[in-house]
Specification:
The complex is a heterodimer of chains A (386) and B (243). Chain A is α+β, with helices and mostly antiparallel strands and 386 residues long. The longest helix of chain A has 31 residues, at 45-75. In chain A, strand 1 and strand 2 form a beta hairpin. In chain A, helix 8 packs across helix 9. Chain A has 14 helices and nine strands. Chain B has helices at residues 3-14, 18-40, 49-64, 73-91, 112-125, 129-144, 160-175, 177-186, 191-197, 202-207, 209-220, 225-231. With 243 residues, chain B is mainly α. The chains are: A alpha+beta (386), B mainly alpha (243). At the A-B interface, strand 1, strand 2 and strand 3 of A face helix 2, helix 6, helix 11 and helix 12 of B.
């Protein structure tokens, strides 16, 4: 193939030609080939064509190879994981994301998590969509309830040395999912390091639960991994806030009591004692009720704060025993007022309530500190004990 | 600059307009260096002695040129440059092998025959002097946009469809007086304004932008009849350049 053109410039290496078809081409020139500007030239197309077509073919081959190899990457969860976002409600789930924030894997870290994952089509969905699915599924399966407030904690772990994923972004995604499902819940998001996650994985926990587990252990609780796994994050967080100087604590007791405390209304979703924010605000911080640590106060999973306030409460409780019942009563009165609203809600599920109370009665007889963790029903019991 | 314009400028330069003289020289620099290289049979740059000889010769041509002598200016300049170069070669022994075929060492004088053959050589090679003039003017225009001829190959679309799209883009652009004004004022393609008005793919514009500017410039200079023929502007379809 030949092209005609006119010389427009000579450079050290090339002759620049303006061709008939309006394009410019650089032709290699030999040392003594110095045409005049405006001279006509005929150039061989074939050389450039073969180079071009060769490059094209090579490029197409590369693209095909890329497609071929990258397809597999979505099926191998570890290969392209850039971020792991762990979510704990009651179900513990880890989302494995690639650097485009698309979900390439979902890993359950407890039974409830498995239930959710089995019901969710997550492959290739974006982070937003996946979280939305998890939240809706949690509602469908009853892990999150329309009635109460739950707690959702999440931690973000950049697996490679990636730019950190913004906490607030994940926070708002979860919030949006809650709104879509017409739910209210406390949301806590933190960023963690890969090392922490690895340690957590060794124990079969998500990062969130691992951190809580650690703090519980530090306080001297003997709690089994199973219990950490299978209980909701809310319960565990509240446990952390409990006074911890009695080392003989049986974790089971705590969990049951906690349960009782939390599930005033008998709903099996966990929620903190206060759902009425206004009352929370009015409430003096220094109550005996270590569970009265408002969830809002727990800005981050910062154990030190909880510990110190818990310790204060612990001291208060001890004093109580020594001093008088009066203090208790007063506090109980306060608690009663606060819980009035809640109780109204609770009336529907009284039967379940009663069952739990039976369990609690036995425990409370042995345990003075349980005084704090009472709703109206069990407070009567305590009074009896005293 | 049309040819008439050039002749006009030469007259002005002759009568003492130094600014115009310098303009003429500047716009013809690629021509001068090309002629010098061609005659020296090697690539000459502006730092070479030959280049200054050519420059001086060209300047003389401006003064000596007479439009009604029936010779075109470029052929005339070619002649003067060649004459001075040959003298230089002769006084410079290392060039004794490089003299062009049709000159013998003995001939010192420029005979009428000599003049004629030189001109003929030039005109044979360069069929159309006007085209050369247009190329020179295009070069000057492109310089203002920071575009060099040798860069353009990279910015030329290979695919027929893309070329068709670019042609239509150029056609649309040149009709838009506002955008044209913006471009000639800023010496840049006003891509944001253009994209806002017309739905051309932003990536194509970026990828081929220097070529697109070149086409637009040629389209705007309707007086460049020969170049326009090469680009195919004013015609339907390509492969029409014969000039």
């Amino acid at each position: 193939m030949h092209k005609q053109g006119v010389v427009v410039k000579i450079t050290e290496q090339n002759i620049v030609i303006l061709c008939n078809d309006g394009t410019f081409q650089n032709i290699k020139r030999s040392r003594d080939q110095i045409p005049l500007l405006g001279e006509r030239m005929v150039i061989e197309e074939s050389k450039s064509v073969s180079l071009y077509t060769y490059l094209r073919a090579a490029a197409i081959a590369c693209v095909l190879l890329l497609i071929f190899f990258s397809y597999g990457r979505f099926l191998r969860s570890d290969a392209a994981v850039a971020y792991v976002v762990a979510i704990d409600i009651n179900p513990s789930i880890e989302l494995q994301l690639n650097d485009e924030l698309y979900t390439i894997g979902l890993v359950p870290l407890n039974e409830d998590g498995e239930k959710i994952i089995d019901a969710v089509q997550y492959k290739g969905k974006s982070l937003d969509e996946t979280i939305e699915l998890i939240v809706s599924q949690s509602v469908l399966q009853g892990f999150l309830d329309h009635k109460g407030k739950g707690l959702i904690t999440s931690s973000i772990v950049p697996v490679r040395d990636e730019k950190a994923l913004d906490d607030s972004r994940v926070n708002s995604i979860i919030q949006n999912a809650l709104v879509t499902n017409k739910l209210e819940a406390e949301v806590q998001v933190a960023t963690d390091e890969k090392e922490t996650m690895d340690k957590a994985h060794e124990l079969g926990l998500t990062v969130n639960k691992y951190k809580i587990y650690k703090s519980l252990m530090d306080k001297g609780f003997s709690i089994s991994l199973e219990e950490v796994k299978e209980n909701s994050i809310e319960k565990l967080v509240n446990l952390v806030g409990k006074p911890s100087d009695d080392n003989s604590h049986d974790s089971k007791e705590l969990l049951n009591n906690n349960k009782d405390m939390m599930e005033k209304t008998g709903e099996y979703t966990d929620r903190p004692p206060y759902t009425n924010k206004a009352e929370e605000a009015e409430r003096p911080v220094q109550t005996d009720n270590s569970h009265g640590l408002e969830m809002d106060e727990i800005e981050e999973i910062d154990e030190t704060d909880e510990e110190s306030t818990a310790k204060e409460d612990a001291e208060d409780i001890e004093d109580e025993d020594i001093d008088s019942e009066d203090k208790e009563d007063v506090d109980k009165e306060d608690m009663k007022d606060t819980f009035k609203d809640l109780e109204e809600d609770a009336n529907e599920k009284e039967t379940i309530d009663e069952k739990e109370d039976d369990d609690d009665e036995e425990d409370e007889e042995d345990n003075e500190e349980d005084d704090d963790d009472n709703d109206d029903d069990s407070s009567e019991d305590v009074e009896e004990n005293d | 600059m049309e040819y008439v314009q050039l002749l006009d400028d030469i007259e002005k330069a002759k009568s003492g307009n130094e600014l115009i003289r310098q303009e003429i020289i500047n716009s013809h620099k690629p021509f001068i260096i090309n002629v010098v290289s061609h005659i020296s049979k090697r690539y000459i740059s502006w730092s070479d002695e030959e280049a200054s000889i050519g420059l001086i010769a060209f300047n003389k041509a401006i003064d000596a040129y007479n439009a009604d002598k029936g010779r075109e200016f470029l052929s005339f300049s070619y002649l003067l440059i060649k004459r001075d170069l040959v003298s230089y070669f002769r006084s410079n022994s290392k060039y004794s092998n490089h003299l062009s075929m049709d000159m013998t060492n003995e001939e010192m004088q420029t005979t009428a025959y000599e003049i004629e053959t030189s001109i003929q050589d030039y005109q044979k090679a360069v069929y159309n002097e006007e085209l050369v003039g247009e190329i020179l003017e295009l070069n000057t225009a492109l310089e203002e946009y920071g575009i060099k001829f040798e860069e353009l190959e990279r910015f030329c679309p290979k695919h027929k469809d893309t070329r068709a799209m670019i042609d239509s883009l150029v056609s649309v652009f040149t009709k838009d007086t506002e955008l044209v004004h913006e471009m000639t004022r800023k010496k840049r393609f006003p891509s944001t304004a253009f994209l806002r008005r017309y739905g051309y793919p932003h990536k194509t514009i970026e990828r081929f932008h220097k070529y697109i500017i070149t086409l637009i410039i040629i389209s705007l200079h309707t007086e460049w009849v020969h170049l326009s023929a090469y680009i195919g502007i004013g015609n339907d379809g390509r492969e029409r350049a014969h000039a």
